[in-house]
Amino acid sequence: MEFLGFTIDVAALTDSAIVILIKIGLAIVIFFVGRWVAKKAVTFANRIMVRGHMETTAANFLSRLLYGVLLVVVVLAALNQVGVHTTSVVAILGGAAVAIGLSLKDQLSNFAAGIMIVTFRPFVRGDYVQISSYTGTVAEITLVNTHLTTINNHDIIIPNGDITTSAVINYTALPNRRVDITVGVGYDANIKTAKTLMLNLARENKMAFSDPEPVIRVTSLGDNSVDLTLNVWTTNADWWALQCDLLEQFKEVFDNEKIDIPFPQRSVHIKGLDQMVNNMDQSQKLPMDKD
């Protein structure tokens, strides 16, 4: 068959068209079937992570990451079916990934730290922690930063990268916690009486544990007082309330028993003060000149 002076092989064109259509059809089938398999694989993996008690944030992220990787593989397989050279596509994707990684290195560092936090769980939502100089209750853990709520109801946002490179104190990781209360008494006070009063109040408090039992010791001979430190155990929930109750009770019982709780004092010595006073006295005794 000739068209505009060109010889057209209809049979060859037909065969080529059929081959192309078959390849396109297979590519479409590969794409849809591959996407269906990817979704099933992600659902199965997510169930395993949930059964393993993985943090919800981490489980969702890893599920989405796995789905994205599988979808890229499916798309590359479909393109390869229609004759597209996927090697160049992979190279382009790799270069783009490197460029994005260099431009977002700080964010990626926080992101990687977030994965470590939600995976190893040094703290969870609801824990009372100290991170660097910040103290508060963990309100939310994301893959980029962590939110702390202070006792003043302030929201502190800390990048996860800073958390993994600093010490973290988790006050509520264990069920029980020790209350340490230091009270100073005067040097003329009876130490044994003061210790007995403090121990009795600690033992009678319903929030305090009897095992281990409260202990009180002399911990310092200060400039103005003898410091007595009480160690008493309680639950995390009662830690603050027990400390406040005992402090109030110690003040009341010491006042009733006339045990002094001294405050800081300083003695000031002025060199040559006596001479100055004598000079002033002499000047006042001098007779007044008469006109």
What is the gist of this entry?
The protein is of the alpha+beta class and 291 residues long.
Q: What keywords describe this structure?
A:
three-stranded antiparallel β-sheet, 52% helix, five-stranded antiparallel β-sheet, alpha+beta, 19% strand, 8 helices, 291 residues, single chain
How would you sum up this structure, described in words?
With 291 residues, this protein is α+β, with helices and mostly antiparallel strands. Helix content is 52%, strand content 19%. The strands form three sheets. The protein has a five-stranded antiparallel beta sheet. It has a three-stranded antiparallel beta sheet with strand order 8-10-9, covered by helices on one side. The protein has a two-stranded antiparallel ribbon with strand order 1-2. Strand 1 (2-3) and strand 2 form a beta hairpin. The radius of gyration is 39 Å and the shape is elongated. The mean pLDDT is 82.
Describe how the helices and strands are arranged.
Blueprint: E1 2-3, E2 6-7, H1 10-51, H2 56-81, H3 86-103, H4 105-120, E3 128-131, E4 134-141, E5 145-149, E6 155-159, H5 160-164, E7 168-170, E8 176-185, H6 191-204, E9 215-221, E10 226-235, H7 239-256, H8 273-285
Antiparallel strand pairs: 1-2, 3-4, 3-7, 4-5, 5-6, 8-10, 9-10
Helix pairs in contact: 1-2, 6-7
